[in-house]
């Protein structure tokens, strides 16, 4: 299927297409015009060409406007990883109509869905055909919100004017690991930054496919959607992530690039898929969403000797600003540098730059108009200053401008006179050969204010004293965990980030006297919760 020429914007002044698109809508139209038969997306048995993508997005735009939606109205997109091809069509159709896309994962609880719909002011929800709309849950839609599958919208073409680069394009909700998610608004120019109309400059040109398993509604997922529009390689989505399924897709499609979060990398290594599948085509492994522990990065380089490991550091608020670097064993904990050195700053509370080596707040400067918190001016003022964005991390720079994270600002443990980095503890824990996953966090202490605790998933028998003995050569005494939880898995959100508040709850004082002797809390029923915990009490302080 190809698009009609009337639906594709004409080249700009001078008769020549510009080198960069002003919007993702323009980028899709350009690729549909120049490469209509080229496959853009592969999801299961579904293959979508650029021509089909553009035509179907136009039909979505026409259907939404025919239902009375006006430019600027918000449309929520309630999809899962198995429906990435439909989600991509829905997202670009919403943008083509001049509406604002509100991505949200189908894994959200009904109350979370209602929060997103209410806070964003969404007027409609698009969802996969045959899927139960979220309004069927315990919490109904807000009044006046309607839901539809793409097929319900009808056909037709959309001939309205394209959106302005300055118009609001999407509201993406943060993962909410510590509280109620905030909506982060981005305009069309922000989303299209870094894209190109020049086929010679398309990224990921070393293979026919790149692979990911990131969920809808995450910043990493949105980056993959932009990659699908901009890259030479087609986007291949894995649906629900399992190491075996992921490895089979790499093998079957001769994938050259894979994108992971650290939790996925750890699972791949633990499953040993590099020993049971031919993954020799992989040339690039991109890690994002959280700091990749150096020990895990070293294992990846051994498991994928033909691949380059690249760390990407950004956030929902800061994108498209980021740092990146090829993993360097000489700088295993470094997260890289931005394209322009002046776009990265370590600052004190007064937002003034600090000297090299001194720890402070990490700030990144966006190359285009920065994002903002939708409907929350007070929170926006705390995080955004012009194009500068406070990352919520504590970090430092070395004398060559490389960024090193000390910790998340909220995760730093203030124990007595010390400020303890949970990242440093986690990196040390990952060096133990039996530790598969690890998380460090603070728990209340009557004298110190907070004490260090850790949760680990192991691949064999290991005791807390053995673990502390191992850490003695790697950490200072005040950094060694006084309490250790051994779990079957760590609690994570859909984006793979560890939910440390859930770990703290396992160590909270019991609510009733009758339960004070329990050392093995029952396993929560939530799939993201830890299971089979076993606590080692804080009885080894002398050995610290």
Automatic annotation (TrEMBL):
Q: Which residues cross the membrane?
A: none
Where the record annotates domain AMP-dependent synthetase/ligase, the positions are 29-374
Query: Which InterPro entries does this chain map to?
Result: AMP-bd_C, AMP-bd_C_sf, AMP-binding_CS, AMP-dep_synth/lig_dom, ANL_N_sf, ATP-dep_AMP-bd_enzyme
- Region (Disordered): which ranges? 504-544
Which stretches does UniProt call biased (Low complexity)?
Answer: 513-534
* Pfam families with a match to the protein in the record: AMP-binding, AMP-binding_C
Q: Which residues form the AMP-binding enzyme C-terminal domain?
A: 424-497
> Which PANTHER family did the record assign?
LONG-CHAIN-FATTY-ACID--COA LIGASE (PTHR43767), NONRIBOSOMAL PEPTIDE SYNTHASE PES1 (EUROFUNG)-RELATED (PTHR43767:SF1)
Q: What is this protein called?
A: Acyl-CoA synthetase
Organism field: Dactylosporangium maewongense
